[in-house]
Write a structure and sequence with these properties.
Alkaline Phosphatase, subunit A; Jelly Rolls
């Protein structure tokens, strides 16, 4: 009896131990890593949304991100495009990465900076960027060199053509299909569908409502001649057609966001996808923006406060509002933390992981300084105070419109913020500020980096007109270098020069992207670099008219209309390695001018 009992007990113990071992050894179901979709718009102000108080705009899909996700009520970006993009990509102040401007090479993010895309790709994600890059066009500044497996869009700043536009796909020239925002959204949807069996990181960098003001006619017709009920700070001097066009473009953005969100639902991945929506700076015109001072290009509140929503159903609380100040620099540490992946690189970040704020953690949050900087002018923001670029102090809790300067009433606070701002300048490598007519400004050092050419992993290098230097009578087609082209090349003494560094010596195929009137065809031009030369003739004629029928309102003189440029193969040339001027000159001129030049492509041959 006792023996049978012991036997049964022994069997039971063995079963219990075996069960425990089996249970311990059984693999736990590991939740899949979340997909990440980041939507960045271009020149969309904080006030350009229904959820933020615009009474005439219809933005139900973007508004739904606030309802179903978390609102960052005080997210601050930079006053213009490329600095904000650099801070999102790296989690570091833009000046640390060499980004000091928006064109002529100043927009390039240093190649030794590590990006959010590199972190996600290293963790096994498929990565893609669709749209406006604006942080460098040549390798290793190109998005394919910065962690993105796929790139479809354009690398310069603003673009001049929005319907069937010239774009590139992984470095090769292509033509878009239809309206550019619709096309970019189509590409993003296709990428998400193609990679449904693995986690993906998709960066959709929409280039509207940036000028030129081009939008499908159905959207424009809803706004044409429509009374504008909410006016900007200029009152009756507001350019109402610009406002109408920008708002029509925002409604197109919203419809495309709706298509994206609907496709996530249809694929069954919405619950495991983090969606982020924000803009790169304040509004690009003087339109309603919640009563804030400033617009794009200014370091005041209205120039740098961006709408921002982060949705992750079931993980982040729906409808939660974060009132603490945050910055674009916070997105890299936050998204990598949410996804449970390490960042790459060992340089210290300027951004914070704001996951506790997103989750509604009530633990104390340390105050901080977020700096807006553009053109040497800088403004400092804390939770309560803003010290503007002219040294005026504002209590943003009591005076969000920056109407009452409290510098004399609060001299200690003003002095403290000024000292912290000067320390920030030193930390990011700016020289001490000097006193100018419009306040204290740090003169930016010149950008002396060459444009690299000849990487084996990316053999085709395009050098657009914005990266060249004209001399003599040659000029750009507009004062805004991005998407411009060279005109008025009328003398054999004229030069167009690109400061390049050839990484790999070898034979290169040379293409010029040009137009040329029939009466001007036949000029002989010469390309030279460190003793190597190549000559050719500008023919046949190719003289298409400027594309002017896309704009819903005429574009200003600072932006030229573009044309359909074609490649002209100049031939092959053997280039030595090294740095020097790549120079174009005319040996003879057949007519009035040599040609109009959009840029040239150098392709390293096998």
């Amino acid at each position: 009896m006792i023996r049978r009992c012991l036997h049964r007990c022994t069997i039971g113990l063995v079963v219990m131990v075996a069960t425990a071992i089996t249970t311990a050894a059984a693999p736990r179901e590991v939740p899949p890593r979340p997909n990440v979709l980041v939507i960045l718009t271009d020149d969309q102000g904080w006030g350009d949304l229904g959820v933020n108080g615009h009474r005439q705009l219809r933005t139900p899909h973007i508004d739904s991100l606030a309802r179903d996700g978390v609102t960052l009520d005080r997210l601050f970006v930079q006053p213009v495009c490329s600095p904000t993009r650099a801070e999102f990509l790296t989690g570091r102040w833009h000046l640390r990465g060499g980004v000091t401007g928006v064109s002529t090479g100043q927009e390039r993010l240093n190649a030794d900076e590590r990006t959010i895309a590199e972190a996600f790709r290293a963790a096994g994600y498929a990565t893609a960027c669709f749209g406006k890059w604006h942080n460098g066009g040549q390798w290793p500044y190109h998005p394919n060199a910065r962690g993105f497996d796929e790139f479809y869009g354009f690398t310069e700043g603003h673009w001049g053509e929005y319907f069937d536009p010239p774009l590139e796909h992984n470095g090769r020239p292509v033509r878009g299909r239809g309206f550019i925002v619709d096309d970019l959204t189509d590409r993003a949807i296709e990428f998400c569908e193609r990679h449904r069996d693995r986690p993906w990181f998709t960066y959709l960098a929409i280039n509207t409502p940036h000028s030129p003001f081009i939008v499908p006619r159905a959207y424009w017709e809803r706004w044409r001649d429509r009374p504008i009920e909410q006016r900007g700070p200029d009152g009756d001097r507001e350019t109402l057609d610009v406002t109408r066009a920008a708002l029509a473009m925002v409604e197109n953005i919203d419809d495309n966001v709706g298509r994206l969100l609907g496709r996530l639902d249809a694929l069954g991945v919405a619950s495991n996808t983090i969606v982020v929506f924000f803009s790169d700076n304040g509004p690009n015109s003087s339109r309603w923006n919640g009563g804030m001072k400033g617009r794009k290009g200014t370091t005041d509140e209205g120039g740098v406060r961006s709408p921002c929503f982060i949705r992750w159903p079931g993980v982040l609380p729906a409808g939660h509002v974060v009132t603490q100040i945050c910055g674009a620099v916070d997105l890299l540490p936050t998204l990598t933390a949410l996804a449970g992946i390490p960042r790459v690189g060992d340089r210290p970040l300027d951004g914070r992981d704001i996951t506790p704020l997103l989750r509604g953690d009530t633990a104390p949050w340390t105050d901080r300084l977020i700096v807006a900087h553009w053109g040497g002018r800088a403004s400092a923001r804390t939770e309560r105070w803003r010290l503007d670029a002219d040294g005026a102090l504002f209590d943003m809790w009591a005076d969000p419109g920056q109407t009452r300067d409290l510098r004399d009433a609060q001299p200690d606070i003003a002095a403290r913020l000024e000292a912290e701002l000067d320390a920030w300048r030193r930390d990011v490598g700016l020289p001490p500020p000097a006193t100018h007519r419009r306040g204290r400004r740090s003169e930016l050092p010149p950008d002396t980096r060459p444009h690299p050419v000849g990487y084996r992993e990316f053999p085709r290098t395009f050098l657009p007109a914005k990266d060249g230097v004209p001399s003599g009578t040659v000029a750009r087609s507009s004062s805004a270098p991005n998407c411009s082209y060279f005109v008025n090349w009328t003398s054999t003494a004229d030069r167009i020069t690109f400061d390049i560094e050839v990484v790999t010596a070898g034979e290169y195929d040379v293409e010029l992207w040009y137009t040329c009137a029939a009466a001007d065809a036949g000029s002989v031009i010469e390309l030279s670099f460190l003793g190597a030369t190549l000559s050719g003739r500008v023919e046949p004629a190719w003289d298409p008219p400027p594309i002017t029928d896309q704009d819903v309102i005429p574009r200003p003189n600072v932006e030229s209309y573009v044309k359909e440029f074609r490649p002209l193969r100049l031939g092959r040339v053997r280039l030595p390695s090294g740095r020097g001027p790549l120079e174009l000159r005319a040996r003879s001129i057949a007519g009035r001018e040599v040609m109009h030049l959009r840029g040239l492509a150098l392709t390293l041959l096998p």
